[in-house]
């Protein structure tokens, strides 16, 4: 295990038992729903892999639509929570996926690639396990977004009992940079935005306002504004 993987494992193990707290409502629930729908649009009847499945919140939404669904995560604590949901999950790193070449029709990853320093290797591994003609749904943190500005102003938040966000590497990429880093043998077919207009997560705790923002976010995900999303999901086809 690399030094980065060991640090990331400790970071996520430490708050795996509380990771789901509050994610069934408001901002986090909206983000999970929008991300899940992007996958479901491609996953019906397909064999699907989630890279960095965490506690399985998104995988649990996707699994009923897929013919086979598998998750992989570095953290034993996260894997234990996903197992408790009855999901098919295994331990492994995004930079060394424990699967054979061309094993899945759809491979997706949310909230993970932004924390992988060796991003080229991770993307190459995802492409390797994706079948020709299949799709890779790759989420990046967007340097052209309100979310990036808010994070720069707010600084590192506390995570779990003993960590802050500064304890794990985080990268921010522009839409142009994302296009450049995609591995050979793939093509970008679409870009989706998540959290396009939300100025701060707390607005989704305000009655009526939260409903309005949720509706606007659903529309903005596919609109001309999508490349301003705090999260950018590159829809990539494996040739």
- Low-confidence runs of at least 5 consecutive residues: none
- The secondary structure category is alpha/beta
What is the percentage of strand-forming residues? 15-25%
**What profile does the largest beta sheet have?**
7 strands, mixed
Query: Globular, elongated, flat, extended or rod-shaped: what is the shape?
Result: globular
Order of secondary-structure elements: HHEHEHEEHEHEEHEHE
Separate helix tally? 8
The tally of strands reads 9
Which whole number gives the mean pLDDT? 92
Helical content stands at 25-40%
Rounded to the nearest angstrom, the distance between the terminal CA atoms is 31 Å
Main-sheet strand order equals 3-2-1-4-5-9-8
- Structural Rg: 17 Å
What does this structure look like?
The chain has 239 residues and is of the alpha/beta class. The protein has helices spanning 3-14, 26-43, 57-62, 76-84, 119-129, 146-154, 175-181, 209-220, and strands spanning 47-51, 68-73, 89-91, 104-109, 130-141, 158-159, 163-164, 186-194, 231-238. The strands form two sheets. Strands 3-2-1-4-5-9-8 form a seven-stranded mixed sheet, sandwiched between helices. The mean pLDDT is 92. The two termini are 31 Å apart. The protein is globular. The chain contains eight helices and nine strands.
Features:
239 residues, seven-stranded mixed β-sheet
Short structural description:
With 239 residues, the chain is an alpha/beta fold. The chain is 35% helix and 22% strand.
What is the topological layout?
Blueprint: H1 3-14, H2 26-43, E1 47-51, H3 57-62, E2 68-73, H4 76-84, E3 89-91, E4 104-109, H5 119-129, E5 130-141, H6 146-154, E6 158-159, E7 163-164, H7 175-181, E8 186-194, H8 209-220, E9 231-238
Parallel strand pairs: 1-2, 1-4, 2-3, 4-5
Antiparallel strand pairs: 5-9, 6-7, 8-9
């Amino acid at each position: 295990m690399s030094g980065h993987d060991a640090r990331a494992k400790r970071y996520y193990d430490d708050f795996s038992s509380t990771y789901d707290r509050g994610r069934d409502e408001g901002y986090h629930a909206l983000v999970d729903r929008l991300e899940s729908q992007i996958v479901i649009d491609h996953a019906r009847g397909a064999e699907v892999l989630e890279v960095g499945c965490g506690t399985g919140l998104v995988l649990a939404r996707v699994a009923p639509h897929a013919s086979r669904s598998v998750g992989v995560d570095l953290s034993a604590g996260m894997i234990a929570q996903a197992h408790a949901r009855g999901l098919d999950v295994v331990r492994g790193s995004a930079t060394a996926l424990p699967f054979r070449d061309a094993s899945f029709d759809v491979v997706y990853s949310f909230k993970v690639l932004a924390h992988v320093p060796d991003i080229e290797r991770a993307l190459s591994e995802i492409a390797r396990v994706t079948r020709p003609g299949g799709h890779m749904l790759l989420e990046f943190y967007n340097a052209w977004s309100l979310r990036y500005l808010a994070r720069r102003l707010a600084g590192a938040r506390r995570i779990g009992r003993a960590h802050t966000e500064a304890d794990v590497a985080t990268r921010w990429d522009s839409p142009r940079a994302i296009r450049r880093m995609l591995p050979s043998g793939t093509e970008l077919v679409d870009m989706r935005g998540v959290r396009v207009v939300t100025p701060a997560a707390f607005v989704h705790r305000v009655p009526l306002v939260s409903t309005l923002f949720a509706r606007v976010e659903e529309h903005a995900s596919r609109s001309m504004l999508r490349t301003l999303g705090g999260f950018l999901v590159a829809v990539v086809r494996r040739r």
